[in-house]
Amino acid sequence: MSKQVSRELGRSATQSELDHFFDYFEILPVKTDEMLDAVFRLRYQVYCLEHPFENPQQCYRGLERDIYDSRSVHCLIRHKRTGWDAATVRLVLPMDGSEFSLLPIEQHCGTSLANYGYRVSSQTRKTAAEISRFAVSREFRRRIGEQNVHHGITNKAVQQLDEGPMSNERRYLPYITLGLFRSIVQMSADQGIDNWFAVMEPMLLRLLKRFGIEFMRIGTDVEYHGKRVPVFNSVEEVLLGIQHLRPEVYHFITNGECYWHPPRSCVNHV
Predict the structure, then answer these.
(1) Class level of CATH domain 3-269
(2) pLDDT of 135-152, one tens digit each?
(3) How many Cα neighbours within 13 Å face the side chain of 217?
């Protein structure tokens, strides 16, 4: 990433722009079967058609699902003018007393975590969740020329925020990523989650960091639909970092609320 792009990102997200995000989009908690099917359809489009991460032949009725959905909470970001579903993310919740109690990161990156010298204790797993299926649809990404990523924010998207001319709608498209993160914060507060795990692309991690959203590496790189990095941080540490580095982003993703309480240790060094 060039220094120029970094500077552009640093000044791109004004409080006014973030506030106006809701003129064009709404963030919807998924509470009905109909909305859940909309999530699965959007994931099918992104993960089976646009990027062949999953086998479409295994997705009944064009709905991309897996074993973790039954223990997850989900959100949708919907475009107000068209009613199109623009993006989705889920939070995989802790689950006790089951053979499926491990988080996806433990299932898919167990060797990576062990090689790095980290393990997740059974006690801390009770209040840890995994950020997963972070996806933005093609219809919106193509408007900012970012067809080749599924997480919805790239260097080009950021740079275009400070270039003109640009329609108002187009200007707010890169902030869909922050809208998803706002939903993650709210879902975590609702579910009593203190800590986050994720397996993310290096590019997404770098760009989130420019918004003050920081995670720490807890494993070696893994090949899972491309290069991915296992990461972790407590909700408190993430939010305090955003508040310090990017107060306008903090206000947007928390709506000015204080969601966290003192965190519990989630990752123990072996």
Answers:
(1) alpha beta
(2) 888 766 675 454 444 444
(3) 13
